[in-house]
Amino acid sequence: MQKQKTRKENRKTESIGNETVRKDNFMNNVIIIIISQIFIKIIGIAYRIYLTNRDGFGDEGNAIYTGGYQIYSLLLLLSTVGIPSAISKLVSEKLAVKDYHGAHRTFKVSFVLVSMIGLAGSIILFVLADYISNKMLLMPEAALTIKFLAPSIFFVSMSATIRGYFLGMQTTKPTANSQTLEQVLKTILTVVFVEITAHITSTNTALMAASANLATTASVILSFTYIYRLYSVKKKGIWKEINKQEKCTLESKKSIIKKVLLVAIPISLTSIVVSINKCIDTVTIMQGLTHFLTEEEAKIQYGILNGKVDTLIGLPLAFNGAFALALIPMLSSAKVQKNMDEINSKISLSILISTLIALPASVGMCVFAQPILDLVFPNANQGANILSAISFMVVFTTIGQTLNGALQGLGKLKLPVISLIIGIVVKTILNLVLIPIEGIGIYGATTSSIICYVITFLIEIVALIKMTKIKMPISKFVVKPIVASGIMIAISYIVFKLACMIMSSNLSLILAIIVAVLVYCIAVVMLKILNKEEWLMMPKGEKIYNKLYKKTETM
């Protein structure tokens, strides 16, 4: 009996040991991505706070600044077309068979291709800047901001190619470091350029917005310089491996380009459609609001939604993005091995974590909308009702992000695009109908956005359940997370109200957030939302589980 027990424990230890080795490598990359993306998001919010609260900038400046940025984002996506993912996939395939020359050749051909596409994108954006600002955005003052932003497409495209090459070597640090450096420089240069412009022009809003986009271009160029120099240093070692390799048949440039595009286009379509969605918002919101508001009033409403509110509701996506990104290679590997148990367990855990991230964030933004805006944008704190109205979109966008990763990992690349297009068509119709109605206005945009992502979510979750036969009990995935979020918001709201009697609203909100996090974590543990197997999939999960539940189990 004792021997049988020992053998069982040995098998368990061996199984955990193998999993730990595999999981540690995976989690190292995930942690790097999470840390860099959260840091980037926080820094991004910091400079948006500065811009929004800067005298002479505010919501009107945000409208000019972000209006042109959506068109830029679309052209940028069309220029890079999922290149990092495509190159990383093709390069890793070459390296797996020790074809170092083929891997480097794939990178070089891709670099030239993407550079040419990026240059074309920059030229198009620069030449059409006046037309876009006057005819599409109805903001003539945005022309200069678009022209200053145009060169970024060329440099971002080249940076994306090098990042893809490094990702193909299974190293995420160059990508994380270059993106972090870019955001830090963007924040610093934005403050410097805007302050100089404000001083010279006596706070001319249009020129301040243009200088903010000039700072973006400067930071992109410096980030490219960093990652290209890093590649130049690494290239010596790369060529040592290439020179050791025996002569092999070189793949034609035409074949490489074809492979890159065939992989890149399906991967990038979802992002392109999202950017198109933003562009549709830019046009329909401004044109709809001007039915009953002046252009200046419409710009302020649009600036609130697309500047402050979008920035805040995008924060949970930064926490969740690494999990969604990690699902693709994990599920692809499990699918090849036909390991349905691993597929279902990873998808189930990822959706559950996304739910546990999204629900409290959504409820918190809804209830504390005004205090949040007071804290983050003290000099331009309008828009609490808009933030409350759209906050529930966070649930569907965050979980939808994970569903996209799951479907792409399982090889269903078209489904996320199709579902999103259906949602956007419905949203566009609702925008055109609802926004021009004076009693609805900007809330027509919030309503249509929520409906868009609800439709997308429903299509994807139904398809995923049919494909995998995954089981997601309502109690575990819906009821318990809602109960935990309800307990959290009730206690934190009471704390906030009591704290406001003895301290400022800002300090009270910070205290309430700290209490909310602690209460929510305790509620998740007490309700046993995560089972033992799910805890063991986490970093240090066994130790955490034993500390949390060992005493309970022995009683």
Which characteristics define this entry?
single chain; mainly alpha; 3 domains
Radius of gyration: 25 Å
List unreliable stretches of 5+ residues.
1-24
How big a fraction of the residues is strand? Answer: under 5%
The largest β sheet comes out as:
none
Approximate helicity band = over 70%
Give the overall average pLDDT.
82
Q: End-to-end span in angstroms?
A: 25 Å
Structural class, judged by helices and strands? mainly alpha
Tally of strands: 0
Number of domains: 3
Shape: globular
Helices and strands, in N-to-C order? Answer: HHHHHHHHHHHHHHHHHHHHHH
**Count of alpha and pi helical runs:** 22
What's the short version?
Helix content is 85%, strand content 0%. The protein is mainly alpha-helical and 555 residues long. The model is unreliable at 1-24 (pLDDT under 50).
Draw up the topology in text.
Elements: H1 2-53, H2 58-80, H3 83-96, H4 100-127, H5 129-136, H6 143-149, H7 152-168, H8 173-201, H9 205-244, H10 253-289, H11 295-313, H12 315-336, H13 340-367, H14 369-376, H15 384-390, H16 393-409, H17 414-434, H18 442-468, H19 474-499, H20 505-526, H21 532-536, H22 541-554
Helix pairs in contact: 1-8, 1-11, 1-12, 2-4, 2-6, 2-7, 2-9, 2-10, 2-11, 3-4, 3-7, 3-10, 4-6, 4-7, 4-10, 5-6, 6-9, 7-9, 8-9, 10-11, 10-17, 12-13, 12-16, 13-16, 13-19, 14-15, 16-18, 17-18, 19-20
